[in-house]
# Entry
Amino acid sequence: MNLPAYCALTERFTRFYRYQHLGAIVGWDQAAMMPPKGNTARGAALAELDVLMHQTLTDPSLPDLIARAADEALDAAQAANLREMRRDSEMANLLPARLIEAKSLASSRCEHAWRAQRPENDWPGFLANFTEVVKFAREEAQCLAQHRGLSGYEALMNKFEPGARSAEIDAIFGDVKTWLPGLLAKVREKQAGDTLLAAKGPFAIEQQRALGLELMTILGFDFSAGRLDLSTHPFCGGVPEDVRITTRYNEDDFMRSLMGIVHETGHARYEQNLPRNSVHLPVGRARSMGIHESQSLSFEMQIGRNPAFLELIAPLLKKHLGAQAAFEAKNLAALFTRVLPGFIRVDADELSYPAHIILRYEIERALIDGEIEAQHIPALWDEKMMSYLGLDTRGNYKDGCLQDIHWPGGSFGYFPSYTLGAMYAAQYFASIRQAQPDFETRMAAGDLSALFDWLNTRIWQQASHWETGELVQRATGETLNPQHLRRHLVQRYLGV
Amino acid sequence: MNLPAYCALTERFTRFYRYQHLGAIVGWDQAAMMPPKGNTARGAALAELDVLMHQTLTDPSLPDLIARAADEALDAAQAANLREMRRDSEMANLLPARLIEAKSLASSRCEHAWRAQRPENDWPGFLANFTEVVKFAREEAQCLAQHRGLSGYEALMNKFEPGARSAEIDAIFGDVKTWLPGLLAKVREKQAGDTLLAAKGPFAIEQQRALGLELMTILGFDFSAGRLDLSTHPFCGGVPEDVRITTRYNEDDFMRSLMGIVHETGHARYEQNLPRNSVHLPVGRARSMGIHESQSLSFEMQIGRNPAFLELIAPLLKKHLGAQAAFEAKNLAALFTRVLPGFIRVDADELSYPAHIILRYEIERALIDGEIEAQHIPALWDEKMMSYLGLDTRGNYKDGCLQDIHWPGGSFGYFPSYTLGAMYAAQYFASIRQAQPDFETRMAAGDLSALFDWLNTRIWQQASHWETGELVQRATGETLNPQHLRRHLVQRYLGV
# Structure
């Protein structure tokens, strides 16, 4: 087959993939390895790389190659690849290079300062840098929205979730707001009478790490193509050929790190199992951040907090952390499904989590679309935390609006991906439950293979071949249906 | 001052510096962190970066900017910067981009395979990849030598040691060959009667690491701008703002790792103390690899094996590794100056070391200039090891010609830097001894500041302001004088 334009495009995008590789490894290093004095030079190097990658996607010859490739005799995979290339090219052409660099530098500066400002509860200090980040994010939003019939916020959200619309998210989150507070109240009432044993620490970090590594092995992580390290803010980074996940340990609490590792392992397996023959091309990438979070939450929520899984790993907790009554499977199930609204999103229980997301979505949407300014965030935060979770956050910036890395790092529009991910995950497992009614029995016995086969065949190996809606339709027989999450929560937390 | 061409050049070279930053961190990661399956993608990403950096230096507008900047009113530092920029640009323009990429990929492949082939003593397997590496290195040598009146090997040597000539190295090494064998024999005869206590292991790795970190602190390493990690082949990498040194540990032998750390700390301090205001420009770089090795060898040989320094650190050895008679200062001095020719260069004593270098220099020079082929290396190696050090290496490739990372990695012309470095270091300390006759007394008392001030003022802060000869002349009052090394060795090992 003679496809000159298409082949020229794959060459450009392969080069782009290699630049991404450099950024992914250097970015991981910045979070997991870099000493503090390296930050200014690192920020400059990464901004330079951002500009280079932007230049690669805005090369003047690209639109013509894309137009010519569309007339070549492409097969289905090639056509899907071209669709993704066109999206990348169009998005990049909406952004001027000077904005890319200015935004990268401002975010790098703000995020770096935030690491010290957060523990000091220093909102005014943060605000000074953050105003700059918001300015560039709005400018980016305006650029990306132009001629596309999108609001600025929608345009940012589409970087992570191609095709997502605010009206749709509003409807989904609006529905959640109708039933979540009532469900939370009912579950808290039901759990009030439960007796459960707290696990007694301290839990030595080396032992938590050994436990984490064994769990990753059970969950299929390939250690010859990835690593587990430490960082203040856990994440999954690196490249599909070399996936880097991180965690943090607390000697008084093994549960957070354990669930954190299970969560990141979900991201990691998606990356490690993207199809090898197209991993360097846009069609071989993970579909979207919502689908990515659906993998981490399949692992953390659907598998990790499942009583059958906790039955499987109870002996490992005893082995690594020492035997204690709290590590009996039934008690573990109670511990890992304990509902207790708190300040911190990443430590939230499964049921409060959507409330954290909805709060952030509402604030960042108003901020990007100019309805509020950065200085209004704390008051809105206080109001919504009280309204959604009954918590008083006044004056407590560090456990409030300063808690997440997303905003200081300039990532607006990402948060909805978490709850979309939880919804997709619940939908997958409803489908799996039908196809494999005994999957929990097998899980408790240590056989997760059928489960992973389902995810591998229907999600991981599909990469970006389909748009999100079609991917989910093909995997589960229907497009996104948020009722599966509601049903899952009611079933798990009320037992009905 | 209005310097449009000069300013345009500093912009280009600042960008080049940032690309170097990406390569340095990703290269460190490849050696210290990367899991094995990451290698192919990593090799491709680094080759892409090599091509990009080459493009940056061969941009068609550069020669004209350099010519125009030469007519601008530059001060001395700017003129030195321009001289270095011109050298970079001229060197880069001699090499075609396709060769850069082909050489990078071939070296990456050869080095990666070598990691497994060396322990298996697999010379034929190695030769298959290595022939390719030699082919590209010769091509590079030919390209770099053209119109410059250099031999191919000289052209490669000039990448590491600008201005070095084979005739000069031949003369220096030829002189060493006249006195080294006799000195070796005398010292071995003298030491044959010594009684010395070997230190008894095992030495736990965690304790060796703690000792290493404390030594680095004493030697002035800035941990807020650098790290110590593990790699199979110790090196100093990273960037001046964030220096990464590595070591390896052997539970039976604490001495190698300890001296390895002292050696790499010498490299690290040079990098960490390059002048901050020009660190992103060619004039702000380390002068040459010979000068770099003069820092590592000032630390390892002039300081590290000095009885006064061993007196200072003897209590630390007892503290970290447990008290034993072998850790008395006098015995340590005997241990660290024990002369015993062996197969491995990096483990060689100070006196045998130059023989290892001369052997490699003679072989790689003949190889690059086409006098021998790759398959002739083992026989030559055997012959020279027998002749220079009296050792039989026949059939033992893994401790013979397969031992170094330089050749599989395509670095020909580097080896002379080690012995030039040892000579410069001996020359510095002859000068320091005159200016600070009590420096050893102060060293034994823990005061190394005057010593570091000398190096900082005369070498580190000078960066690439002067050509090598002038740098050394200004620092010590004379250009390279190899007799200082001879005098140092005779004084230290024969006490005369």
